[in-house]
Amino acid sequence: MLPAPEAVGPPGGADGTATERELLGAADVTRTVARIAHELIEKTALDARPVAGADSPRVLLMGIPTRGTTLAARLADAVAEFSGVRPGLGSLDTTLYRDDLRRRPPRALESTSVPDGGVDDALVVLVDDVLFSGRTVRAALDALRDLGRPRAVQLAVLVDRGHRELPIRADYVGKNVPTARTEDVAVLLTEHDGRDAVVLRPAVLLPGTGRPGSGS
Amino acid sequence: MKHLLSVDDLTADAATAILDDAERLEQALLGREVRKLPTLRGRTVMTVFFEDSTRTRVSFEVAGKWMSADVINVGAKGSSASKGESLRDTVRTLHAAGADCLVVRHPASGAAHRIAAWGGASGPSVVNAGDGTHEHPTQALLDALTLRQRLGSLAGRRVVVVGDVLHSRVARSNAHLLATLGAEVVLVAPPTLLPIGVEQWPVSVAHHLDGELPGADAVMMLRVQAERMRGGFFPSAREYSISYGLSARRQALLGEDVPVLHPGPMVRGMEIASAVADSAQSAVLAQVRNGVHVRMAVLYQLLAGAEGVS
User: Fold this and answer.
1) Mean pLDDT value across residues A194-207
2) Do B307 and A102 touch (CB under 8 A)?
3) Are residues B88 and B104 in the same domain?
4) I need a labelling partner for A103 at 20 to 30 A (CA). Which of A4, B8, B193, B208 fits?
């Protein structure tokens, strides 16, 4: 647990009007993913010697689109590099399970893919970029239940920004970032945004809802 | 999007979004223990069919149920329409009974538009599931999805549509949607089975099938709509079959991977030879499967959206 947000100066803006603060740079993102991979290996006993009478667990990383899927792929690479065992990789779109569908304009659906063998009896690690209200994770748990019955489900996030609305916590947290509701945490990844970073910006409120438009 | 009445309601981007969602939905349901999504829980979809149909009605019903909507089927037979109730009163009754969405098939062209207009802003969403000889937008979408899956992309592809264009809402919707998506459409039909004003459609017209087949990227056969014909549009079924039926000989004029579509129900031996309908080139069953996913995507777009937020 990190006790408090680190003080980070405004990036560049000598006039002091910068509206964006960088919390993690590219090297920090890489290091954080590597650390989560190490924790995951330790906690899931991926590379442990076979214990008498116990099967080694089948570990699946299921990313929540879009950036969670990208992070899951990077995490799988890191886990494979450090442990020699490559976990299964899938993605799980939660849109169809969201409880706020009637409050927002319809969203385009993202891809769902389940690795061969399905989720039955696997240790499924859900991977997302930001943990916020917990509603996306709740939707993901519902979606997972329809896919089958995992042995256990864990949650890995790059950033936990607080403001939970449901009794949900992450098993692996890259960075705890205490935030105000009027702020927005954006995880930027090279594949989508051209660079790796985590930045804090003023939130864009969704019209009529008084709620931030992104982050979950 | 409040209603889907015509393919003219759809821009290329909007149509592509529906096709993309349909593929995502298929992917999301693949290999699942529970083939049901909670997305439309608590929504009521009523299929109102004043004309017979198997695949469209079943397809909408399955689509609604897989998304957890409550689906209620209303037919003309067995409803008060058979006692002389007006369409407007029937529709008002269904809305008062709780319909969030009406899927309407009606023998009169324009019926779905009238129903949507009667409902106003607070009325149920309306999906046109075939109105007379006018439009059948979800059929055009499922055909476009089938073609996209077989051909990769629709842009610049030459699609030959064969048969009773005059009575076919499928042909009309397809011609416009395929053109919107960038395909080149060729209608092949006897002059008696072409509608007035076809020259204003975004298509070219030919009368000899054999000449069009070698350059085709896909062939879409139409049903000869005998029930709509008052009088003789062609001398005999045999002559129609000789001129416009897709026989095994004609199949040989096509490239090997050129898909053959038919909206069904097929009249085998007349419109299409059994050997062709059952061949690997036939996309008929893929069309039916895609129909469910396309209709799920349409219901999702119409019903999952925000109430009061556009």
Assistant:
1) 85
2) yes
3) yes
4) B8
Answer yes or no: are the C-beta atoms of B234 and B275 closer than 8 Å. no
Does B309 fall in a domain?
Answer: no
A residues 81-140 near B, CB within 8 Å?
Answer: 93, 96-97, 101-106, 108-114, 118
Does any CB of chain B come closer than 8 Å to the CB of residue A148? yes
The residue of chain A nearest to residue B24, with distances taken between CA atoms, is A111
pTM: 0.88
**A65-97 pLDDT tens trace:** 999 999 999 999 999 999 988 999 999 999 999
The phi and psi torsions of B146 (rounded to 5 degrees) equal -60, -45
How is the beta sheet containing B70-75 ordered, strand by strand?
A: B70-75, B44-49, B101-106, B125-131
Distance CA B178, CA B172 (A): 10
CB contact under 8 A, A106 and B36: no
Same domain, yes or no: B277 and B148 = yes
CATH code for position B59: 3.40.50.1370
Q: Of the candidates A111, A146, A206, which has its C-beta nearest B32's C-beta?
A: A146
Q: What is the mean pLDDT of chain A?
A: 85
User: How many structural domains are present in chain B?
Assistant: 2
Q: Which ipTM score applies to this complex? A: 0.82
Same domain for B203 and B131, yes or no, is no
Task: For residue B48, give its domain range.
Answer: 7-135+288-303
